[in-house]
């Protein structure tokens, strides 16, 4: 980090630029450009390394934010990625979709007067860059327990469960009715906010860790819960919240009126090339 403790005055908060309008008009991709190495280092250097970091406290998973900001500033990307994964199963996703303005960045000491440190975009940079450079979770010291757990649902809860179990030597087998992992991360969030390739890459990483996925498999139809209870040492239910809220408006059920979730899911399946035969 810079020896200048007033770096935050000399260097203002800078957010990544949006992609040009002509591109956003024709491509349904993430609208913000990623940070360059220089931008990420400079923005990370604005961190005050507070003795009592409110950003870390306000983060729901209590990420070691000042620590990996320091590592990012020093260019120690693998170490930063390793540290961010100690508290977060999907840091590259959180860097994109978390409401940082209400959480870590909203509680940053610099927020009111100087502009918060761009924590979310640096988190995205750290992990995207580490993956690009070939970093993968190191499980070489993990000792298998011989236990196997069935996980129903490949959304954030199920994936977090599988990640933690695998890191502790338990074989995780994840069942999901959809043809790709991620749950609403994949099928509910449009690509301009979270590109589908992010979760595709994450599935490859998880598979490399030894997590097994049984996709296009609906519990209760393709496999029975009672059978899972007999076959596995434990069963984790992470089935998600797929029920839409009703607005209580007149003509909600009129022809041509669609609930948001079924529409988003069907649209995503079409974009990703999953036909009806893929459920």
UniProtKB/TrEMBL annotation:
Family annotation (InterPro entries): 4Fe4S_Fe-S-bd (IPR017896), DPD_II (IPR028261), FAD/NAD-bd_sf (IPR036188), GltD-like (IPR006006), Helical_ferredxn (IPR009051)
Keyword Iron-sulfur: yes
Top EC group: oxidoreductase
Protein EC: 1.4.1.13
Keywords noted in UniProt: 4Fe-4S, Iron, Iron-sulfur, Metal-binding, Oxidoreductase
Annotated signal peptide: none
Top-level taxonomic group: Bacteria
GO MF: 4 iron, 4 sulfur cluster binding; glutamate synthase (NADPH) activity; metal ion binding
4Fe-4S ferredoxin-type domain location: 38-69
rRNA processing is among the record's keywords: no
Protein name per Swiss-Prot or TrEMBL: Glutamate synthase small subunit
Lineage: Bacteria, Pseudomonadati, Pseudomonadota, Gammaproteobacteria, Enterobacterales
């Amino acid at each position: 980090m810079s020896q200048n403790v007033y770096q935050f005055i000399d260097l203002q908060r800078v957010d990544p630029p949006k992609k040009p309008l002509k591109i956003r008009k024709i491509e349904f991709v993430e609208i913000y450009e990623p940070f360059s190495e220089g931008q990420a280092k400079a923005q990370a250097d604005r961190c005050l390394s507070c003795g009592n970091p409110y950003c870390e406290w306000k983060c729901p998973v209590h990420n070691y934010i000042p620590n990996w900001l320091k590592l990012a500033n020093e260019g120690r990307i693998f170490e930063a990625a390793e540290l961010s994964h100690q508290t977060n199963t999907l840091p590259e996703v959180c860097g994109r979709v978390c409401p940082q303005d209400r959480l870590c960045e909203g509680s940053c000491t610099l927020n009111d007067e100087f502009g918060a440190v761009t924590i979310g975009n640096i988190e995205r940079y750290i992990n995207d860059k580490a993956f690009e450079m070939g970093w993968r979770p190191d499980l070489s010291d993990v000792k298998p327990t011989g236990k196997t757990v069935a996980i129903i649902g490949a959304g954030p809860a199920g994936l977090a469960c599988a990640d933690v179990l695998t890191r502790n030597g338990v074989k995780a087998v994840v069942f999901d009715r959809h043809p790709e992992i991620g749950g609403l991360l994949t099928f509910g969030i449009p690509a301009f906010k979270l590109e589908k390739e992010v979760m595709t890459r994450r599935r490859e990483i998880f598979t490399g860790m030894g997590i097994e996925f049984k996709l296009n498999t609906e519990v209760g139809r393709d496999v029975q819960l009672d059978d899972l209870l007999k076959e596995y040492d434990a069963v984790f239910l992470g089935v998600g919240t797929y029920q839409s809220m009703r607005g209580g408006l007149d003509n909600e059920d009129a022809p041509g009126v669609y609930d948001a979730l079924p529409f988003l899911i069907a649209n995503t399946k079409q974009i990703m090339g999953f036909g009806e035969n893929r459920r």
